[in-house]
């Protein structure tokens, strides 16, 4: 049995386990036991319920739509959340496989750090908005590409880009860092024939509608009174569904957090957690980022199918990974602690940009990519089996190294088998 066949068997076996788990979760949560109050009381579903009942507030767009459908058409809110999450997750999986396949990128990493790993064990099981947001981010990047390529009626793609960008930020303001910094930087670089001030002014004006929306989301971030009023707007639904009023969910309650409180929490969970041996978690993150970067930059080291390219431009891919990491650095540093989910955003948006945008010369980042490429060209990193071992053992923890084993491929296999049995 040749090596490629072994990798294929492992790949399809692991994917089968994940799909079985996804179907098990979907059936059990949505049909067998759809009235789990704990999902609403925690972060899982409650964030969807933020609405504009007490005026404009961040993340309120979808909650407003769900409440409207319930009030006007008596459409069940929880079931609609399940439906949106499942459809968007399936769409994201299929689209990711499609553009990897079309661009000749190896799908070997898809079931590990690029998508299915920690995302499967956390985001799908808690019905978050990640798949929906990633699809909207891809759409915004698509319209930006069409604007670059267009000669006639470019204004149409600009309007579509602006509207999509506004829509995704109203879904969750953190999405701003996943696509706007790249668009701004790329737009600035492409105007290289202009003066520096002209380039900067042109770039700001180009993304102005999205910037204004982000500014509004930051200003109208909510408070304790708004959070309580939003939760109370669902009183008729809770009484109809559960026969009682539920305690306010964590996702809605988070509107009452101050900026300083949120930053302190995230910094503590990201960098100040002590691991066994009193090792600060920041050192573990350095190793994880180094190895994750290595895996993604060498995505085609293991090719399962003939159409997958033998060689890709590693330096250009590294450049895109650096740009996206820089753009998302506020999320990784102080605005989030769900690293398992952030890795999905970082990796998938980087590969989408790499696959769909032509090679541009990005100062600073291009230099950094050349240097790190030299490091990864050492003998140890060039071996296939080292690459395989890293891909199945690397952990991508969330919420301050919570359940790190479950975010690795090996941990997923153990958990998936146990949950199915």
Structure explained in plain terms:
The chain has 421 residues and is mainly alpha-helical. The protein has one domain (3-128, 220-420). 70% of the residues lie in helices and 1% in strands. It has helices at 3-32, 37-41, 61-73, 77-102, 110-114, 116-126, 130-149, 154-171, 176-190, 196-206, 208-219, 224-232, 235-242, 250-253, 259-272, 281-297, 314-327, 329-335, 339-356, 365-376, 379-382, 384-393, 409-420; strands at 274-275, 279-280. A two-stranded antiparallel sheet has the order 1-2. The chain is globular, with a radius of gyration of 22 Å. The mean pLDDT is 86.
What structural class results from the helix and strand content?
Answer: mainly alpha
Beta-strand fraction estimate: under 5%
Biggest sheet strand order reads: 1-2
Average pLDDT level: 86
Distance between the termini: 30 Å
Radius of gyration: 22 Å
Strands, count? 2
* Biggest β-sheet description: 2 strands, antiparallel
What would the principal axes of the Cα set say about the shape?
globular
Low-confidence stretches: none
**The number of domains:** 1
Helix content class: over 70%
Order of H and E elements: HHHHHHHHHHHHHHHEEHHHHHHHH
The helix count comes to 23
